[in-house]
Queue: 2 jobs
Job 1
Amino acid sequence: MSIQTANSSLLLSGSKIYEILQFYYSPSATAYQNSSEVNYNLYAFVGRTIPWEDNQNPPVPTQDQYSIKKVFKDIIAVKKIITSDVSPVIPRRDWTSGVVYDYYDDHEDMFAVDSQYLISKNFYVRNKFDQIFKCLWNNNGAPSTDQPQFLPGTFDSTFLIQTTDGYKWKFMYTINGGIKQKFLDENWMPCSVGTIIPSPAVSAAGAGSIDVINVTTVGVGYDPTGVTINIVGDGTGASASAVVNAAGYLTDVTMINTGTNYTYAEVTIDVNNGFNTPNVASVAIAPVSPPGGHSIDPISELGCNNVMISLDFTGDEGGTIPTDLTYYQLGMILNPQATSELPDLATDERYDVTSQLFVSPGSGSYVSGQTVYQGTSLVAATFTATVANFNSSTNVVKVINTEGSIIDNEPLFQDSNGAINSAVRTVLSHSESDFIKMSGYMTYIENRSAITRSSDGTEQFRVVFRF
């Protein structure tokens, strides 16, 4: 007889943090198998010189083995992705006047996602100085009309900013200029990688502090001298005082000491002996911070579950990527190999992945995207390839998508069917790339409309991964 047991489980956001940090630090990791080489080598590639059938609507990539091998064959060059090319990112949320922002509540799931798997709670903002703030109170759902900000050098991390609209904000971090240029776009902004793991041992907050007490029901009929704020919880040291205006309205509570080692807290607003009972009793909440306190670890506190790779292809990249080139495909490969470094991983910063054919001087130019071949005809060819680039000064033809074997001292024909120019020259010698095609793990493919390079231009390769 079998016994059925009921189970309920939840994979928490902390599991995503592990994956994000592993991805972020992977370019600098060590010890691949029994080697001293880098553990994770990730390369971005550009490839394919043939336009799509509908170039404005490139086909969706597929991961069948035939298609993956075709992508490998079409690669022109690869460039290594390093740690400075990687950043955790969160959805960009610029502070906007009139928006009602959500506030941090330790009894709420702050990281619940919408149908697009983006965090639905709008509880953090970026201001005009690239300062990131977390909202700790929204004045009972009032629109935000005063932007949280401080001048550099004037902020004390131990206090909060309370704006004139009644909002309370906790500063998290500032996006510096270099990081901003590389990782800030219209949809995403970089999230700071903290150096401290959330823990009761890292700060005076311990298991949690009470940075704010928020009045959810404004009291009426209070005497400013006759109110006591009582905080009940499992921590120690938290204390606060009531804010009562001249009309007897209890509108806020000011923290005197944020306390330490709280995992929960409740607050009561009591009238001292000898004072009248208020007409409307004030009600307040005391949300407890994460372990270690607010702003210790932005990645976990802001629910980061995305990583951006941002890599520049500048000029000819040391001669590996032609500048007079139009390409239609890019992507990434994990842990490829190079012949000169076997059995270890490829480690060079860049690789020219094309086959290079050194041809005799002559008339006619080989055209990028056209087919070249050796043999009596294209149908009976012993070797075919697609032209990536032809340098008429050095008489070097760079080709991709090769089939068959190149034969030196034999002519290389360009298929005249649709070719812009006909060309026939003799292959004097040839060389193969050190980079081993089909090696490693194809991790990402992006089919694009035409990307045309220039000698003084830079293309920025950006891709965001969700965990």
Job 2
Amino acid sequence: MQATTAIEALGALAQEHRLALFRLLVQAGERGMTAGAIAGALGVPNSSLSFHLNQLNRAGLVTQERQHRSLIYRANYPAMNALVAYLMENCCAGAGAGAGAGAGAGAGADCGSGPGCETPIRERNSA
């Protein structure tokens, strides 16, 4: 993942309604949700919801699919996993962060708990 892509995705999530919306779609799983169901669950007006969905879609975090007369929105799991992997890519500068650190989200990495993570990177580098 490029830094500009990560910045765009993080920027899209850096708003209360969009973060709640994305978390709701992650919880909904592959079945996704219609805009009406999302609006009802979050209590967000349709005009605002459309704007927020568009922002998340533009950032690549949400997909939409037309099913008959409805649009189904889903979290883009590969994009989410790539963002988390990008953020954890240099976890503890590779010093004992666990075998799964570079394998992406959910791969068993527990950044910050390894022996190399007990000292902040700045202090390790200067030692």
